[in-house]
Amino acid sequence: MGFIDVIKERARSSKKTIVLPETEDRRTYEAAAQVLKEGIADIVLVGSEEAVKAGSEGLDISGAKIVDPATSDRTAAYVDKLVELRSKKGMTPEQAKDILLNQYLYYGVMMVKMGDADGMVSGACHSTADTLRPCLQILKTKPGTKLVSAFFLMAVPNCEFGADGTFVFADAGLNQNPNPEELAAIAASSAESFELLVGKEPVVAMLSHSTMGSAKHADVDKVTEAVKIAKEQNPEIKLDGEFQLDAAIVPSVGASKAPNSPVAGKANVLVFPDLDAGNIGYKLVQRLAKAEAYGPITQGIAAPVNDLSRGCSSEDIVGVVAITSVQCQAAE
Q1: Does residue 276 contact residue 269 with C-beta atoms inside 8 Å?
Q2: In whole angstroms, what is the distance from residue 314 CA to residue 323 CA?
Q3: Pick from 252, 281, 292: which is nearest to 8 by CA?
Q4: Is the domain of 199 the same as that of 280?
Q5: How far apart are CA 240 and CA 238, in angstroms?
Q6: Residue 38: is it exposed, middle or buried by C-beta count within 10 angstroms (0-12/13-18/19+)?
Q7: How crowded is residue 180: how many other Cβ atoms within 10 Å of its Cβ?
Q8: Do 170 and 115 belong together in one domain?
Q9: Counted domains in the chain
Q10: What is the pTM assigned to this prediction?
Q11: How far is CA 84 from the centre of its chain?
């Protein structure tokens, strides 16, 4: 059984309600139909009955709940709550109503905030910024979290590295150029996410173009400082660096370049030095190794809301819905 099959099975064990607000996109309906068929989660689609009927033509989404912001008896309460949450920013009832009637991502997040749904998945036709903005404004960060970040769960076929080919790549979706403190926070959150979703011990490598001082540069210094901070703050996590990628995941290279490291050659959580490296890295592995790439999965938000790549397939959405459901189970 592959990684995502295990996640789906866990999702089915205690079904959660997931909002899919992007009802302007056919992939949303294809994913909803598949999620319902497989019994992975209960689905809410945000939109008018007419628009949903037209968009889902030929698909069986009869098990989904359709919520039209223009007619729902919950909209008034959402308006009031949004005004309350954004009052310091000058939000008026008229502005809140306009947002909720016309920006379905905000409506979906309000459903999560008010307990009418457990989580949300969006991003097939919206940028990461558009997906996360309402989350940060309405849901805020999880208590004790220093930074909201994003990762991809990578499942690489026929791969002996990582956890049987399964990795977390972070941050590959959100933070452009994290400083040492932020890199350390990303590492800690990513280790927690790996353990939750993969069910194995996280082994965290802080990546660089240098291995254990083999190169001198300010970019290397940033990573070595992050390693120091992360170890001090999270001594229970198996974490080390800085590593070049091959030293992090290939046992023979790790033994040669960093013989005294408990992480070298064994890493399954890869923390990239910046967003450029993380984004390029996951797409290289996805396209050239034909890996399954699920995400960007967010970590650090007060409730599970996850992003999608705009190049995602409907099957990718199904996978992220399953992952979001498992996160919802853990949040209880």
Answers
A1: no
A2: 14
A3: 292
A4: yes
A5: 7
A6: middle
A7: 18
A8: no
A9: 2
A10: 0.86
A11: 28
